[in-house]
Write a structure and sequence with these properties.
The complex is a heterodimer.
Chain A: H1 11-33, H2 43-65, H3 74-85, H4 88-108, H5 110-126, H6 130-151
Helix pairs in contact in A: 1-2, 4-5, 5-6
Chain B: H1 4-8, H2 10-13, H3 15-33, H4 39-49, H5 55-80, H6 89-100, H7 104-137, H8 142-160, H9 164-179, E1 181-182, E2 189-190, H10 196-199, H11 204-220, H12 240-262, H13 268-282, H14 296-318, H15 325-336, H16 343-348, H17 350-371, H18 375-382, H19 386-405, H20 408-426, H21 432-454, H22 459-468, H23 470-484, H24 488-499
Helix pairs in contact in B: 3-5, 3-17, 4-5, 4-11, 4-15, 4-19, 5-6, 5-7, 5-14, 5-15, 5-17, 6-7, 6-14, 7-12, 7-14, 7-17, 8-9, 8-21, 8-23, 9-21, 11-19, 11-20, 11-21, 12-13, 12-14, 13-14, 14-15, 15-21, 19-20, 22-23
Classes of the chains: A mainly alpha, B mainly alpha.
C-alpha cells in the first residue's frame, strides 16, 4: 500500500465531487423512510450512504496531507488534467464516438451501427488506412454477428426504420 | 441423491459439455494473457450471453474461463512483466527475470505444470471441505451473513486498494447500486426518483460490464502507443527432473493458496503473494536469489493462485459469499440461472456441486494441455495492438449488456459506470469492492432486517447477539481487527514492534 503517492491531476477535485455525490445519496436514502423504524427499507441505504460520506471525507483529508501534484496554478492543473487524465485525443473524442454509437444503435440496428463504429474506431485509433480499417471492421462484425446472433441466439438491435412488418409488409 | 461420481464425470462424458469446458479454458488462457483483457471482464461479458443456456453448459464454459484466466495472467507476467491478472503480480517478480535470461520457455512450462498441481489440490480440498462447511453454515444466523459480507467487502477493499477509505467508499457505492429499485420486502422505491425504468433496478451484469469491461477499455486508451513486444519461444514443456524438484514446494504453497482463497474477500492475488513470501522464508537454497529469476519464486505463486480457485468456490457455494471479484461475478451467474448459492444449494442441488467440481477438474486438465501447446498462436495474440482490442471490447460490452433485457437503457448505464469506473481506477480506487457490494448489498440488507426483526427491533439486543453468540462473536472480532489493523495507530505499533 502506497499512501505517499503524489496526487494525480484532478484527484483532489474528484474527492470533493465524490463527497457531493455521497451527500446527495444520503439525502435520497433519508427520503426513503427516514428514521421510522430500525427495519425500514431506508435503514441500510442510510448506513451505506453514511459510509460513503465518511470515507469521502477521510479521502479528502488524506488528499490534503498527501504530496501535491507538480502544478501550482489552476490553469496548469487543468492542462495536466487534460494531458494525463482526460486527453482530448483520443479519450474525449473516443468517448463521444462511443456515445454516438449507442445513440444510433436502436434506430440503425446493430450491423450498420457497429460496422460504422468499428470502421471509424480502427481508422482513428490504429491509423493504418481506410481499407485496412474497412476489412477489419467487416470481418469483426461478421464474426460477432455469426457467433452471438446465430450461434448463441443473442437478440441484437434490429434496424427500426426498416421494420417491414411494422410498415405492413406481410410477405 | 444419485451417485455424485456420475455428476462429477458429466462434463467429461457429454461431448457438448466437454467442448464448452475446453472452449472456456482456451478462451480463459488467452484472454488472461492478452494485456488489456482480464478474466473478470471476460466472465462479466460472458454471463450476459448465457442467459438462455442450460445451467450446466453455462457453468462449464465459465468454470473453464476462470481456471484458464487465472493461469493465463502468468504468461504476460513472465514474458512482458505485465501481470494481466492481479493473481499474477507475484509471478512477475521472478518470472520476468527468467525471461530476460532467455529461459521464458522453461518458466512458462514450469508455471503451467505448477498451476495444474495447484488447481488439483484446490479442487480436492473443495470436494472434501465444501460439504462440511455447508453443514456448519446451516448454523449461521442472518447477522452472521451480514458480518461475513461486510468482512468480504472490507477485505477486498483494504488488501487490493490504496487505502481502506477508498475500499469502503467503493463497497458502499456498490451496495447502493445493488439496492436501486423496489424493496423486496415492502415494494417501496429506493433511489428510483419516481422513474418507472429505475423501479426494476440496475442489473448487476450491467454494472459488472461497465466497471470491468468499459472502464478497462478506456484506461487502455492511454497505452495505444505501447509497442507490441516480440518474443521468441520454442519448447515450453519442462523436463520431468525440473518438475519433480519443485513438487514439494508446489503442494505446500497450494495448501496456502486454497486456505487464503477460501477466506471471504481474499482471492488468488493475496494467495500468490502469501505463497511467494512463504517460499522466500522457507527455501534455504533457491536456484537463484529471489527477485532475480528464482524458479521457487515462480512455483509458489503459480501453485497458490490456481489452488485459490478451488478455495474461492468453498465460501461461494456454501455461504453465497464471493471470495473475490471473479467469484462475485460467478454468484451473479448462478442467480441468473435460478440457483441460490448458500448452504441450501448443497442440500437442494448437490448434483450441481459435483458437476462444478468435475468441470473444474476437467478445466484444470485442459489448462495443462493448452498451456503447454499453441505457442505460436499465443505470441500472435499477445502482439494484438490495443487499438484493435479496445473497440472490440466495447462492441462485446454493448452486445453483452443489450442481451440482458434487450433494452438500450442498460447500455447507457453500462457506459456511465464505465466512465465513472475509469476515473475510479485512475485515482486508485478498486472497482472489485463495487461489484462485491452490488452482489452482496441486497443480501446484507435482508440479513440485517431479519436480524433486527428477530430482536423485536431492539438495537441493544442486536448488538448483544453480535458478541454473545460464538459464531457472531468470532466474526465481529475479525471485523473489528480488520478495521483496527488499518488505522495509523496500529500500523505505527506494528512497525515499532518489527524494528524492535
Amino acid at each position: 500500500m502506497n499512501e505517499q503517492r503524489r496526487l494525480r491531476p484532478g484527484e483532489a477535485t474528484f474527492g470533493y465531487m465524490l463527497l457531493i455525490f455521497s451527500l446527495f445519496l444520503l439525502y435520497n436514502a433519508f427520503a426513503i423512510s427516514g428514521f421510522s423504524s430500525l427495519s425500514s427499507p431506508g435503514v441500510f441505504p442510510l448506513v451505506a450512504a453514511s459510509a460513503m460520506v465518511v470515507s469521502a471525507l477521510t479521502i479528502i483529508l488524506k488528499n490534503r496531507t498527501a504530496p501535491q501534484g507538480e502544478a501550482t496554478t489552476f490553469s496548469h492543473r487543468l492542462r495536466l488534467f487534460h494531458s494525463q487524465i482526460l486527453p482530448l485525443k483520443p479519450m474525449v473524442i473516443y468517448i463521444a464516438m462511443v456515445i454516438g454509437f449507442m445513440m444510433v444503435l436502436e434506430p440503425f440496428g446493430f450491423i450498420p451501427s457497429a460496422l460504422i463504429f468499428l470502421f471509424v474506431s480502427f481508422w482513428y485509433l490504429y491509423a493504418k488506412g481506410a481499407v485496412f480499417a474497412l476489412v477489419l471492421s467487416i470481418g469483426s462484425v461478421a464474426i460477432v454477428y455469426a457467433l452471438f446472433r446465430l450461434v448463441f441466439k443473442v437478440v441484437l438491435p434490429e434496424m427500426e426504420w426498416l421494420d417491414l412488418e411494422a410498415l405492413g409488409w406481410e410477405g | 441423491m444419485e451417485n455424485p461420481i456420475s455428476y462429477f464425470f458429466m462434463s467429461w462424458s457429454d461431448p457438448y459439455l466437454l467442448l464448452m469446458t475446453a472452449a472456456g479454458t482456451f478462451a480463459g488462457v488467452y484472454v488472461g494473457a492478452i494485456p488489456g483483457l482480464s478474466v473478470t471482464m471476460a466472465v462479466s461479458i460472458l454471463i450476459s450471453f448465457t442467459f438462455s443456456w442450460d445451467t450446466n453448459e453455462a457453468l462449464a464454459l465459465m468454470v473453464g474461463v476462470y481456471m484458464g484466466g487465472v493461469y493465463g495472467g502468468s504468461r504476460t507476467a513472465i514474458l512482458l512483466n505485465i501481470p494481466c491478472a492481479p493473481s499474477a503480480i507475484a509471478t512477475a517478480i521472478d518470472g520476468y527475470p527468467l525471461a530476460k535470461r532467455g529461459e521464458a520457455g522453461t518458466a512458462i512450462g514450469v508455471a503451467t505444470v505448477m498451476s495444474f498441481i495447484g488447481g488439483l489440490v484446490g479442487i480436492l480440498v473443495l470436494a472434501v471441505a465444501a460439504p462440511l462447511v455447508s453443514e456448519f453454515a446451516l448454523m449461521f444466523a442472518p447477522r452472521d451473513y451480514l458480518l461475513l459480507a461486510v468482512i468480504g467487502i472490507l477485505l477486498v477493499g483494504s488488501l487490493s486498494g490504496e487505502s481502506l477509505a477508498k475500499g469502503v467508499f467503493a463497497g458502499a457505492l456498490g451496495v447502493i447500486i445493488g439496492m436501486v429499485g423496489l424493496d423486496p420486502l415492502t415494494a417501496e422505491g429506493r433511489f428510483t426518483f419516481d422513474s418507472i425504468t429505475m423501479m426494476g433496478g440496475i442489473h448487476y451484469v450491467t454494472a459488472m460490464i461497465g466497471f470491468f469491461g468499459v472502464a478497462e477499455a478506456l484506461a487502455q486508451l492511454h497505452h495505444l502507443e505501447t509497442p507490441a513486444i516480440k518474443q521468441k519461444l520454442e519448447r515450453i514443456t519442462p523436463k520431468w527432473s525440473v518438475v519433480k524438484r519443485y513438487i514439494p514446494l508446489s503442494i505446500r504453497t497450494s495448501f496456502i493458496g486454497v486456505f487464503i482463497g477460501a477466506l471471504p474477500g481474499t482471492g488468488g492475488d493475496i494467495a500468490a503473494l502469501m505463497a511467494y513470501d512463504h517460499a522466500k522464508r522457507s527455501v534455504k537454497d533457491p536456484s537463484r536469489k529471489f527477485g532475480e529469476g528464482a524458479m521457487e519464486g515462480l512455483v509458489a505463486p503459480e501453485s497458490a493462485n490456481n489452488a485459490a480457485v478451488g478455495g474461492a468456490y468453498i465460501p461461494m457455494l456454501t455461504l453465497g459469499i464471493p471470495g473475490d471479484a471473479v467469484t462475485a461475478v460467478f454468484i451473479g451467474a448462478l442467480y441468473i440461472h435460478g440457483l441460490n448459492p448458500g448452504p441450501m444449494l448443497m442440500i437442494e442441488t448437490p448434483h450441481l456441486f459435483w458437476f462444478t467440481v468435475g468441470a473444474l477438474m476437467l478445466a484444470n486438465v485442459f489448462m495443462l494441455i493448452f498451456g503447454l501447446t499453441g505457442v505460436r498462436l499465443f505470441i500472435k495474440l499477445v502482439e494484438c495492438p490495443r487499438a484493435i482490442l479496445v473497440p472490440l471490447i466495447l462492441i462485446l460490452s454493448v452486445v453483452g449488456t443489450y442481451a440482458i433485457q434487450n433494452n438500450v437503457v442498460d447500455v447507457y448505464w453500462m457506459l456511465g459506470f464505465g466512465i465513472f469506473g475509469y476515473f475510479l481506477k485512475i485515482y486508485g480506487y478498486q472497482v472489485g469492492p463495487v461489484i462485491l457490494g452490488v452482489i452482496l448489498g441486497p443480501l446484507m440488507d435482508v440479513s440485517y432486517r431479519r436480524a433486527i426483526i428477530s430482536t423485536r427491533e431492539s438495537f441493544g439486543d442486536f448488538m448483544l447477539e453480535m458478541v454473545t453468540n460464538p459464531i457472531s462473536a468470532l466474526l465481529s472480532a475479525a471485523l473489528v481487527f480488520l478495521v483496527v489493523s488499518q488505522t495509523p495507530m496500529y500500523k505505527r505499533w506494528t512497525n515499532k514492534r518489527r524494528s524492535v
